[in-house]
């Protein structure tokens, strides 16, 4: 039994949409369906997966823009982010206009997520961490069994999320990374919202924004 992962880069921003599934039940969740939902559905159908829910790390258009359309097409619910993210999810129509995306309605998930909540995918369980800073209601999904975390735009290989958007907070972001992510196992795989995978240990040792050598 294992949690499986496939990443589909979507939208002009090449956002890492993650398909996670339990290889016993073939039940799946789609994380951050920002757009290109035909490509997401094609992969799911080719693998014979049954999507039971959509998950959102945060409400920026490249992560959430296609979520409602995909959830409606699959007749499933959306879970996450944390409720402070209504600030961004309410503005999806304006975000779409600003960045030239297809129209996307304002979105309210069927389930808001909080620190300490869990999300099930078949026989697999994800832990929820609330990691504000890039956006106020950003969450991260952690699988202890698969030794991976899907971190959205909190942490990247050699970088961190932007905090210059409205409701961004640099100090909150640094604190979330160091107090919640850097206590995870060094060999845990990090699946960021953009770009290549990394590990907790690599970023803790060498990330120029948050590495141990910078903070002591």
Helix content: 25-40%
Could you give a short account of the major beta sheet? 6 strands, mixed
Radius of gyration: 16 Å
Topology as a string of helices (H) and strands (E): EEEHEHHEHHEEEEEEHEEHH
Give the amount of beta strand, in percent.
25-35%
What's the total count of β strands? 13
Shape: globular
Mean pLDDT: 97
Strand order of the biggest β-sheet: 6-7-8-9-12-13
Task: Report how far the terminal alpha carbons are from each other.
Answer: 39 Å
DSSP summary: helix tally? 8
Uncertain segments of ≥5 residues (pLDDT<50)? none
**What structural category do the secondary elements indicate?**
alpha+beta
Characteristics of this structure?
13 strands; 28% strand; hydrolase; 5-stranded mixed β-sheet; 216 residues; Metallo-B-lactamas; zinc; metal-binding
Would you summarize the structure shown here?
The chain contains 8 helices and 13 strands. By secondary structure, the chain is of the alpha+beta class.
């Amino acid at each position: 039994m294992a949690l499986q992962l496939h990443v589909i880069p979507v939208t002009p921003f090449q956002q890492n949409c993650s398909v996670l599934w339990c290889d016993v039940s073939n039940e799946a969740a789609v994380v951050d369906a920002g757009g290109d939902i035909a490509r997401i559905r094609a992969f799911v159908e080719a693998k014979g997966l049954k999507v039971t829910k959509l998950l959102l790390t945060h409400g920026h258009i490249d992560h959430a823009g296609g979520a409602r359309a995909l959830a409606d097409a699959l007749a499933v619910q959306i879970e996450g982010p944390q409720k402070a993210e209504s600030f961004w999810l309410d503005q999806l129509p304006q975000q779409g206009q600003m960045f030239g995306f297809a129209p996307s309605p304002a979105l309210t998930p069927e389930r808001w997520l909080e620190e300490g909540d869990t999300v099930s995918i078949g026989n697999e369980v994800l832990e929820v961490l609330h990691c504000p800073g890039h956006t106020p209601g950003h969450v991260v999904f952690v699988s202890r069994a698969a030794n991976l975390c899907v971190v959205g735009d909190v942490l990247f290989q050699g970088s961190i999320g932007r905090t210059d958007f409205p409701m961004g907070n640099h100090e909150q972001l640094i604190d979330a990374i160091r107090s919640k992510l850097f206590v995870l196992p060094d060999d845990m795989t990090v699946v960021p919202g953009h770009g290549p995978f990394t590990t907790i240990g690599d970023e803790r040792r060498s990330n120029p924004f948050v590495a141990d050598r910078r903070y002591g």
